[in-house]
Amino acid sequence: MESRVLLNGLIDHSQQRHISDDQRRSRVKSSYSDVLYRILKHQRWNDFTHDTIAGMTASSFRLVVDRRLTAESISAYNWMAENFVAADFIGVTASQAAGFSFEPTFPLYQKQALHDIKASINRGVGAIVWHNQFVIAAGYDDTEQVIYICNREGQEMLPLPYHSFGQNESPYWYYQVLEAHQSVDVWEVCKESLIQAVYKWETHDYMLPPQDYACGAEAYTTIAAALQSGTYDTVEAEIVLRYYAKSRQDIALYVAALEHLSVHMDRVIREYALLADHYSNIVEVIDDSAAWDAREPQSVQEVIEQIQRAGVREQKAIDAIKQAFPETIGNRFADIGLR
Question: Which residues are bridge partners to 158 per DSSP?
Answer without folding.
Answer: 149
